[in-house]
Specification:
GO terms for molecular function: dynein intermediate chain binding. Keywords: Cytoplasm, Cytoskeleton, Dynein, Microtubule, Motor protein, Transport. A five-stranded antiparallel beta sheet has the order 2-1-5-4-3, sandwiched between helices. The protein has a single domain, classed as Beta-Lactamase. The chain is an alpha+beta fold and about 100 residues long. It has helices at about 5-15, 40-45, 45-65; strands spanning about 20-25, 30-35, 75-80, 85-90, 95-100.
Length: about 100
């Protein structure tokens, strides 16, 4: 990962409420995980976040292309009772940012 990308991930990770950031490869394996606490939910579940979020992005991208074949998924936000998950699919990986929505 380039120094610029690494610096950007570090900057995002220090925003209030961010629990962690995962960079997942196309096959759903996590290649990088940044989190503030060793026992954070992101650290404990990084493999599950990687697998499921990569699959969700793939299905959402497919739905977008079914609606318009020349369009593509750029960003996806999922909010649950406990966390908000922001997904940014790229060519070879997916950036997953997990935050506590009540910490803003």
């Amino acid at each position: 990962m380039s120094e610029e990308v690494e610096n950007t991930l570090q900057r995002i990770n220090h925003h209030p409420g961010v629990l962690g950031i995962i960079v997942a490869q196309g096959d759903g394996k996590s290649s990088r995980c940044l989190h503030r606490e060793e026992e954070s939910p992101v650290a404990r579940n990084k493999d599950n976040y990687s697998i499921y979020c990569t699959e969700i992005c793939s299905q959402a991208r497919s739905a977008v292309r079914d609606l318009d074949p020349v369009d593509d998924l750029r960003f996806l936000r999922i909010r649950t009772k406990k966390v908000e998950i922001m997904l940014t699919p790229e060519k070879d990986n997916t950036i997953i940012c997990v935050q506590d929505p009540s910490a803003r």
